[in-house]
Design brief:
Number of strands: 0
Order of helices and strands: HHHHHHHHHHHHHHHHHH
Distance between the termini: 20 Å
CATH topology: Growth Hormone, Chain: A
Number of helices: 18
Largest sheet: none
CATH superfamily: MFS general substrate transporter like domains
Radius of gyration: 23 Å
Helix content: 55-70%
Structural class: mainly alpha
Strand content: under 5%
Length: 433
């Protein structure tokens, strides 16, 4: 197992990373479910009329088959351009991808801690700006800033988890980060439509940004710098530091690293700058894009992200067409919470046990491919969920079947992402990030 210096840091750091990542992703998914509100807002209509519209009558009882997203706009009102309103969901996805390409290598140059703090600031500042925005263009711009921060945070967390965790416990740590999102999403997701329908959608941004500020303060206080120079042997989990009987972590080599102090825990730039390595890491990013493992991982994640985003954008319309009042459509996030619990079990302890068992069956030599057995069930779940969700919506089946399909999609997505993160990191540990 890997036994380098970072394993001496306290486990409490994981909970703070969970908080930041959970709030970031939860905010993105909650806003996705508010598309009906934004269509009305930027069509010049009070979104609170959503609770008084009979969408079942509007669709003739045929559900989604006849429901256009613009059907939420009253007759005689010129609707806002749907493609532009949809940018509130799609632009953050673009900016967080672009941000990750630059900010993650920057963490190699200046350290993980300052970059993740900067990204966290972008996330809650963008949320506040969105809450105070007075136009659709300003709202989209604020969402871009929010996406920039949220994307970098989510990209850096797997890298920090790799820095801090033993190799045989990485699935558990990554699944804890993703599973915690279900708890945050459940509370925010249920409250968001209610607040938007009864009061104003701006409260959602203020609440998530307030939680983001709190998580930012926790990051400042408890998450240390984790960028240390490691050999390929350390990164791949080989045992190179001697352990005395009964030890599971090595002693700090103060002659090499110096004594542990408050500054080494929460300081900035104490390990110097490595801009050349950052430049090389950006080139390596381009190189690794052609590696079979990366290509396959990107394709798998992309398919699931598209499925989750598509389902998230239309679920509220599906439920409205089946007679739900808008203020209650946030209950559709319960499957996401359930999926989060299942992700922790299947993508965490069970995944670690299965991959460790496969390692044992293969003579005890750890290989990244030993994680692939963990992908079989979530892949089947995600694909089945797409068919169930689409068929239930198209044929106006009971809403419980629609939500079952949504649950299977989310479970497949989150578990696959968890396992793939660990698989890719272990495949190319020297290029992690």
């Amino acid at each position: 197992m890997s036994t380098d210096l970072l394993h001496l840091y306290p486990r409490r750091c994981h909970s703070n990373q969970c908080a930041v990542g959970s709030i970031a992703l939860a905010a993105e998914l909650v806003i996705t479910g508010l598309l009906p509100v934004f269509i009305l807002e930027y069509s010049g209509v009070d979104p609170r009329i959503l609770n008084s519209v009979d969408f079942v009558a509007q669709t003739g009882g045929n559900g989604l088959a006849l429901l256009n997203p613009l059907a939420v706009v009253p007759p005689g009102v010129r609707p806002a351009p749907l493609d532009k309103v949809a940018l509130l969901v799609t632009v953050p996805l673009l900016t967080n991808g672009v941000a990750s390409y630059f900010l993650v290598p920057l963490s190699t140059a200046v350290g993980r801690r300052p970059v993740i703090l900067f990204a966290a600031v972008c996330a809650w500042v963008g949320g506040l700006a969105a809450g105070f925005s007075n136009s659709l263009t300003g709202h989209i711009a604020a969402r871009a800033v929010q996406g920039l921060g949220a994307g970098a945070v989510e990209a850096l967390i797997p890298l920090i988890v790799q820095d801090m965790c033993f190799i045989h416990q990485r699935n558990k740590a990554m699944s804890a980060v993703l599973a915690s999102q279900g708890i945050v999403l459940l509370s925010l997701g249920i409250a968001a439509p209610y607040l938007a329908a009864k009061f104003t959608w701006r409260y959602i941004y203020f609440i998530t940004s307030g939680l983001g500020v709190l998580a930012f303060l926790l990051l400042c206080a408890f998450v240390p710098e984790t960028r240390w120079t490691r050999s390929k042997e350390e990164l791949s989990g080989q045992k190179i530091w001697p352990l005395r009987a009964g030890q599971n972590r090595p002693d700090v080599d103060e002659a090499t690293y110096g004594p542990r102090t408050l500054w080494t825990n929460i300081g900035f730039f104490q390990l110097g700058f490595e801009f050349r390595k950052a430049g090389v890491s950006m080139l390596n990013t381009l190189r690794t894009m052609l590696f079979p493992v990366i290509v396959w991982g990107v394709l798998a994640n992309s398919v699931f992200i598209i499925a989750v985003q598509a389902a998230g954008q239309i679920t509220s319309f599906v439920l409205l067409s089946q007679g739900w009042r808008f203020q209650y459509v946030g209950l559709a996030n319960i499957p996401f919470f359930a999926a989060g619990v299942m992700v922790y079990l299947f993508g965490g302890p069970l995944a670690d046990r299965l991959s460790n068992a496969v390692t044992k069956w293969n003579g005890g030599g750890r290989e990244p491919e030993h994680h692939l057995a963990n992908l079989v069930f979530p892949f089947i779940s995600g694909v089945a969920g797409c068919f169930i969700y689409g068929y239930a919506g198209q044929n106006n089946l009971h809403w419980a079947i629609t939500l079952l399909g949504f649950f299977l999609i989310v479970f497949g997505f989150l578990t696959t992402m968890t396992v793939l993160n660990v698989f890719v990191v272990e495949s190319y540990p020297m290029w992690a990030g």
